[in-house]
Amino acid sequence: MNAIKKIGITAISGMMLLTLPSVATANDPGGCFMVTSSGKTVSLGQLCGMTPPPSTPKVFRIPIKRRIGKTPIIDVTFNGNQVFEMVVDTGATGILITQEVATALKLQPSGTMKASIADGSIVEFKTSNVLTVSVGGAVLNNAKVAIAPKARIGLLGHDFFEKYDLKILEKQVEFYPR
Fold first, then answer.
1. Span 85-101, pLDDT tens digits
2. How many CB atoms lie under 10 A from the CB of residue 112?
3. What CATH class is the domain 60-177?
4. Hey, where are the domains in the chain?
5. Which residue, 45, 21, 23, is CA-closest to 32?
6. What are 62-89's pLDDT values in tens digits?
7. For residue range 113-162, what is the model confidence (pLDDT) as tens digits?
8. How many helices (H) and strands (E) does the chain have?
9. Which Pfam families match (predicted)?
10. Phi, psi (5° rounding) for residue 82?
């Protein structure tokens, strides 16, 4: 009898409603659920006034178009409507665009920055800001970009994906919001 009082069983229209104390375990349906006649567990958290569990964050999956060496190239959208190929560069601090991209976006340089490049030398780039840089549904607003006049392709670096965990798969790159 004590066990029934602690757990709390209620019959509703031939179904059994079971309310358990809040103890989290793997695959726990929550403290308020029912089991259908077919054995399926259905959460009744809202009905019992319980807060639903946090939802799984949205994952942004972007197809890899090709690779340079083993480094993925993906489509990146600027200002909501102009798409350019860029390297997903986990070793780059910022976002680097080509002069052709800067011209297409009608960017005016607003400053300069010095950066160390892959060969260890220090170079100076003109900089500008872009309204949005997006990949799938992942978006960075008011993004600072470096303009590289001699680059053939842009680099998408940490300034873009610093709020995401990345997973580079064979055919796609996944961005997981932190």
1. 999 999 999 999 999 99
2. 11
3. mainly beta
4. 2-43, 60-177
5. 45
6. 999 999 999 999 999 999 999 999 999 9
7. 998 877 888 999 999 999 999 998 899 999 999 999 999 999 999 999 99
8. 3, 15
9. gag-asp_proteas
10. -115, 120
